[in-house]
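tokens incoming
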């Protein structure tokens, strides 16, 4: 599998439970770059890019979240093949 990217939105009890910092740790361990942020609707959203297999695993991990979170749904949008990474690391965006 080659490089891919997608946007994600995680719904449920995901703000105020260290979801963003947990996501950074998970993504970094998988070699995924991009960002995660709290959005104005109470969800956590972001962009992830990396090897296709790693992104599939990352999407599954997002469905679990940290222990204090209660993930109701994970929506993956704009999934596409990319030729190179736009981001050099995975960070919390404010």
């Amino acid at each position: 599998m080659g490089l891919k990217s997608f946007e994600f939105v995680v719904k449920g009890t995901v703000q105020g439970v260290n979801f963003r910092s947990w996501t950074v740790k998970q993504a970094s361990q998988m070699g995924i770059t991009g960002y995660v942020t709290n959005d104005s609707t109470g969800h956590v959203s972001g962009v992830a890019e990396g090897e296709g297999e790693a992104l599939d695993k990352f999407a599954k991990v997002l469905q679990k979240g940290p222990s204090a979170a209660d993930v109701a749904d994970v929506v993956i949008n704009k999934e596409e093949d990319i030729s190179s990474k736009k981001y050099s690391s995975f960070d919390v965006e404010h």
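note: The chain is about 25% helix and 45% strand.
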